[in-house]
């Protein structure tokens, strides 16, 4: 009896002490503790030029990406996510500001980002989030709203890259994809404040041109052969802007710069297609020696075969070389996403962390005979999007609603319970993620590409896509319209704009395009304003 009484007293006393301790806690601290529990951590993973065709959750024809797929297996796979402007820095500006290019001002890669724009990381930081960014930004200036950043200058390098940090520039030896992950893990391990929710932007340079894999993966991928896309030999009939674009694998991909044929071999073969193996020249002697063991035999083989190759054979050879290196860089991204997810598991962070995987845009992997992006055609208009949010998203869900990178800012703010500014132009994806799809009624998405005249010669164009159709207008030095029937012609080979059978659809889509342009506050006046700015040399103040 006595023992039980004693025990009761101990319990009572401990409870009193506990409540005293809580009430002694600063009110603000308590609030932060509560927020830390209710506000999820957000990890935004973005790679550069990662085609959805090269993620096995979408298609396993080319590569297995088990770690990236895990995000969809535990969350949601978006099969109809697109960008508003398929090029690097503009896409990033749209993501950060939640505004279309014509309003945030970052229309192309050539001008600096206007830092008077309000970005979602700044808002999250003010709302108590700890924020960090590692990897590629490509803005020409440093990001605002981050407690810590280590970013690549411009495009960044694969081998032994330089990073811009708050304490100055530093060169880190090794492979960029591994290093970017090391930086992110080091920040989570040593500088994360456990009482605060965090936003981590973890941004890979890979698989951007000129596609330099690490040793493990070039050894593996140079042994592989990939299926040819059905449209590899597209002749661009009926599509004027496609005819003048300069991104054809046969005609515009460079044998040394892109396909890594040694310069001496090209000299002996009398081939001058410009460029050199830039990244090779950055390697340490050890890195070069490993590289040469694999790539020298490829050059030697090419030297033997080239004299008898016709265009078809050369196209196929270049396509295989392209995919071997491109996919090799993705295999590293996948390994490193695995490292990050394992870290979250090991540190009990998985349950309260949203993980997003996306790319700054899609990419052509030989479809239409192309590499690169920029066009509103599906392979570069669409982008991969996989989101895991434990206890909110039903694992293994596939979603075909037309969502865009424009929606990310408002989505993250809503996840954090923070009100988004009225002038953001996207829509939060939270209803879709949490099974309240009836609140989502978007029926068309808007697109506008500006960087012309420029590399790859893709003409300026804007358009809208609905689930059934896509209408595009190319302008500046042409005035060309295109219409695609997305259901019957998913490869977008037949421009049916002038087909009388589609006259009614054309009229409806033109009308809708006008309405959408008005809704998003885009106009001919703004088109002309940006042409004027572009022609003014001060606009082009950045190297690509
Ligand atoms: C570089 C590439 C282009 C690529 C742009 C933009 N050329 O200029 O092929 O389209 O970047 O890419 S290279 O010869 O320098 O590799 S983006 O992803 O940054 O928009
Ligand atoms: Ca890109």
TrEMBL record:
Keyword Chloroplast: no
InterPro entries hit by this protein: Alkaline_phosphatase_core_sf (IPR017850), SGSH_C (IPR032506), Sulfatase_CS (IPR024607), Sulfatase_N (IPR000917)
Residue ranges crossing the lipid bilayer per the database entry: none
Protein name: Sulfatase
Pfam entry (one): Sulfatase
Domain of life: Bacteria
Keywords: Glycoprotein, Hydrolase, Signal
Family, as annotated: Belongs to the sulfatase family.
Record's keyword annotation contains Transmembrane helix: no
Domain annotation N-sulphoglucosamine sulphohydrolase C-terminal: ranges: 366-519
Sulfatase N-terminal domain: residues covered: 40-263
SUPFAM superfamilies: Alkaline phosphatase-like
Signal peptide start-end: 1-24
